Amino acid sequence: MRFVGIAALAVLSGTAALAQQSLSDQYRHLTCAQLEQEGRAISKRGFALSGLDPGLGGAAGTKLAPAVIIVWPAFDGKRSEDLALAVKQMDAIEQASIESQCSIRFQRPRAG
């Protein structure tokens, strides 16, 4: 019986990793401008799901430093399934941005 529980846990872990991989693949082919647009949209959704005013979902840089900042909300308590999905999507967009060497900075609240 213990083996069945461990095997089930391993399958679920593998499924979660596969789901994250498919999310990463979904964003990998996008341009930096498209990643920025997706990041802003998911940021706005994250703020709304957290019960906060979504604002602009990011800020543009200066002429000398044309970086884009994608802001993520701080929230307390349990995550809804929708918010958990938004977090995974934001992580996948950030990874795609890094791989494509986009000048997008993802700003999350500090822990603690």
DSSP summary, beta strand count: 3
Quick one: overall form?
globular
How much is the average pLDDT?
73
The value of Rg in angstroms is 16 Å
SSE-based structural type: mainly alpha
Can you lay out the helices and strands and say which pair or pack?
Elements: H1 2-28, H2 32-49, E1 59-60, E2 68-71, H3 81-99, E3 104-107
Parallel strand pairs: 2-3
Antiparallel strand pairs: 1-2
How does this model look, in words?
This protein has 112 residues and is mainly alpha-helical. It has one domain. The protein has a 3-stranded mixed sheet, covered by helices on one side. Strand 2, helix 3 and strand 3 form a beta-alpha-beta unit. Helix 1 crosses helix 3 and helix 2 runs antiparallel to helix 3. The longest helix is centred in the N-terminal third of the chain and has 27 residues.
Which tags fit this structure?
disordered N terminus; globular; 57% helix; 3 helices
What does this entry show, briefly?
The protein is built from three helices and three strands.
